[in-house]
Amino acid sequence: MSEFKNVTVKKAANVFFDGKVTSRTVLFPDGSRKTLGIMQPGEFEFKIGDQEIMEILSGDLEVFLEGENGWKRIKGGAQFTVPARTTFKLKVHSLTDYCCSFVKA
């Protein structure tokens, strides 16, 4: 899906790591939410509540998921799923455009 229709977008940005990771929240009529964002090169660690599906629209990174062995390379056009109530790490190698979908448990 290249665009979202009939949604609400929160104007205030979500800003992490001194602005190296930013996103905007998109709310859907069914109550679901996504964020659309940009990550600059760097290393980041996130602790999450809900399950997340990270769709990488463009860019190049590595992800380390809690409970898995080693880093996995992810490039634009790929996605990965982060289990609920876990921590994951990213090594972002180039400017990365992403869409994160939150899945309520």
Question: Any overview of this molecule?
Answer:
The protein is built from no helices and 9 strands. It is mainly β and 105 residues long. The protein has a single domain (8-103), classed as Jelly Rolls (Sandwich), CATH 2.60.120.10. A hairpin with a 6-residue loop joins strand 6 and strand 7. The radius of gyration is 13 Å and the shape is globular. The model has no long low-confidence stretch (mean pLDDT 96). GO terms for molecular function: purine-nucleoside phosphorylase activity; pyrimidine-nucleoside phosphorylase activity. It comes from Candidatus Manganitrophus noduliformans.
What is the CATH class designation?
A: Mainly Beta
What is the count of distinct domains? 1
Write the CATH homologous superfamily.
Jelly Rolls
Number of helices: 0
Question: Could you give the count of β-strands?
Answer: 9
The appropriate CATH architecture is Sandwich
Average pLDDT, to the nearest integer?
96
Q: What overall form do the CA principal axes indicate?
A: globular
Biggest beta sheet summary: 9 strands, antiparallel
% residues in beta strands: over 45%
CATH fold-level topology:
Jelly Rolls
**Can you give the helix content as a percent range?**
under 10%
H/E element sequence: EEEEEEEEE
The helix/strand class is: mainly beta
Uncertain runs with pLDDT below 50, 5 residues or more? none
Distance between the termini: 24 Å
Compute the CA-based radius of gyration: 13 Å
